[in-house]
Amino acid sequence: MMLYVLAIFLPPAVVLFMGYPGKFLLNCLLTLACGIPGIIHALSLVAEYKKKNDNLDLAKSITTGFAAASHLNKSSQKSSEPVVKVVNPTSILPPKLSQEEELQNLKKLKDQELISEDEYNQSKRKILGI
Hints:
Layout: H1 2-9, H2 11-17, H3 21-33, H4 36-66, E1 67-71, E2 83-86, H5 99-111, H6 117-128
Antiparallel strand pairs: 1-2
Helix pairs in contact: 1-2, 1-4, 2-3, 2-4, 3-4, 5-6
């Protein structure tokens, strides 16, 4: 989200930050020419950059959740068969909080005014099973 905002106010800086040095020069020219073309160019590059990073994050989560392979075990080097280590998805999840801890966290959110009174009451009922 922040990249989109910066792309409107500082198009060349965002393009350079994303690692496109060649496109940075083009964006400078477009921004100096009229401004709007540079903004449009930067916004399109931000969308492309976000899509690429989202795909990478998805791929990482899939490989982390299912298996971590491609390492050979010393004992299997003789037979040249790779050893696949299966990761239990529950081992990477945070521990389940008790009702008391959940209610304390919920109260903190309410006190910080991050949730409304209605949201607080609804979540409280859900935690207590009422």
